[in-house]
Amino acid sequence: MSAHVDGDKDLWVGLGLAEAAAGAKVGPAPVADIVAGGRRLRNRRRTVVGAVALASVVALSGGALTQLRPDPAATGAAVAAGSGPVAVGPAAAPATTAAPGVRDPFTPVRVRLGQGVANGKTWEIWQALWPLAPKDRAYEQALAVWQERAPFDSNIAKPTPAFVAQYWQADSDVIDTYFVVDGVRIGHDSAGDTPAPGRLDPRSAADFSGGLFGRSSKDGIVPPVDVVVISLGPDVGRVVVHWADGTSTEPEAVTVGDSPTRRMVVARPGTVRAKSWEFYDKAGNRLQDRDAKFLTEPAS
Q1: What is the pLDDT of residues 108-133, one digit of tens each?
Q2: DSSP helix/strand/coil, 180
Q3: Whether the Cβ atoms of residue 157 and residue 203 lie closer than 8 Å to each other
Q4: How many H-runs (helices) and E-runs (strands) does the chain carry?
Q5: Nearest 10 degrees: Cα torsion 155, 156, 160, 166
Q6: E strands, the chain, where?
Q7: Residue 2 burial class via C-beta count within 10 angstroms: exposed 0-12, middle 13-18, buried 19 and up
Q8: Distance from C-alpha of 56 to C-alpha of 193, rounded to nearest angstrom
Q9: Contacts of 273 (CB under 8 A, 6+ apart)
Q10: 185-236 pLDDT, tens per residue?
């Protein structure tokens, strides 16, 4: 059964607004957002259409696209933002990466989840993981996350102490996933929460969720590729994507720091539609929710 292993709302990290408390986005709701629907499963089991529902209603668009070229070095590796191809002028995030084994709530671990080239543009998807902060320092962490995100999206309001105190999660790290195009971070990201090490509900270990990412950039820069970001529980063994041209791929999962969940980036190969998706646990058993609709709509 598939359920959400991550929270999908912007949470308290960047929104000191009443709209966020109601689960709404600031401004036009970006349906093409990472981590489709619902709140993260905690102490009860919830059956969801989750990974299926959002992607099935997203209208895909884009011209000639390229197949994802996974970044082998990203798996399990903490890469400092500001190093490599993302270090371009003011778009580069602060060069802060925690040392191995150190969980500093004010020094995020950054990992490149995937990269490729489409329409002559180099694209990358990164994720910053901010380790769980104690409640008495949660507002300080929220400010740090806001200070990083705000330069790329002026609609992200400064968080308030009251909002942070209300929505702080005692079992969750904070994550921010963002797009970089030709070395420039664009104005669309997705912030939320993910279980901290040792805090994942065992009943969620084989869960997965995801959605189309980055298609509604707030700064008008549209990513050159249709790409899905999927979150996988630790017991999900492999994912197989069958494409309409008869080919199949098994995308590589990426670990961000010591998070118990992993991330998978899948880009549309050219204009080819996905025909079907298969999710298996580590024992080779096929998981339920077999009707995932990621990238099954024609490219426009």
Answers
A1: 999 999 999 998 999 999 999 999 99
A2: strand
A3: no
A4: 4, 11
A5: 120
A6: 109-118, 121-130, 172-181, 184-195, 208-212, 227-232, 236-243, 248-249, 253-255, 262-267, 274-281
A7: buried
A8: 24
A9: 243, 244, 295, 296, 297, 298, 299
A10: 988 788 999 999 999 999 999 999 999 887 665 566 778 889 999 999 999 9
